[in-house]
Automatic annotation (TrEMBL):
One of its GO terms (molecular function) is ATP binding. SUPFAM superfamilies: TrpR-like. It comes from the Bacteria. It comes from Paenirhodobacter populi. This is Chromosomal replication initiator DnaA C-terminal domain-containing protein. InterPro entries: DnaA_C, Trp_repressor/repl_initiator.
Length: 161
């Protein structure tokens, strides 16, 4: 299984879209379909629960996550060109390497949350994922400092000032 932060960063890189846009309220096809694809990949390539996936993609509820999963599945089944696109995205995500600055931040975040502890409560996983996501965002050279801070706060479930 893959690290959720790696999947998120790879999808953002593939679509050349900022995490803050991907998880925001945007409903244009240029935003929605990459978001649906991210949800599908988080569901199939990570151990994240439906609820954790919803939190990672901007605090969406489980019914929204399930609807996204269904949309991608239906489109892959019905549209050969889209199926090819999604297959290319899956290969890209599988081979994606996180930038060194993000790896350093991820390592620190993992140490903070004690990743791998078997006795951690279920909420600790969601908290850990949020911390890892925030660390990845803050290490992103594509975002300005203000954008990175805002996106990291949103990933942590806090309102950006």
């Amino acid at each position: 299984m893959m690290d959720p932060s790696r999947v998120i960063e790879a999808v953002c890189a593939f679509h050349e879209i900022a995490y803050v846009d991907l998880t925001g309220p945007g409903k244009t096809p240029q935003i929605c379909w990459p978001r649906h694809e991210l949800i599908r990949l988080l569901n199939t390539k990570t151990t994240c629960s439906i609820m954790a996936i919803g939190r990672l993609v901007g605090g969406r509820d489980s019914s929204t996550v399930r609807a996204s999963l269904n949309q991608v599945q239906r489109r892959v089944t019905e549209d050969l060109a889209y199926a090819e696109h999604f297959w290319r995205l899956e290969r890209f995500v599988a081979s994606y390497e996180i930038r060194p600055s993000a790896v350093t931040a991820l390592t620190r975040a993992r140490r903070l949350i004690g990743k791998g502890a078997n006795d951690a409560p279920a909420d600790a996983e969601a908290c850990g994922i949020a911390l890892l996501t925030a660390a990845t965002i803050l290490g992103s050279p594509e975002l300005s400092d203000a954008e990175a801070r805002r996106a990291a706060l949103l990933a942590l479930g806090q309102t950006a000032a």
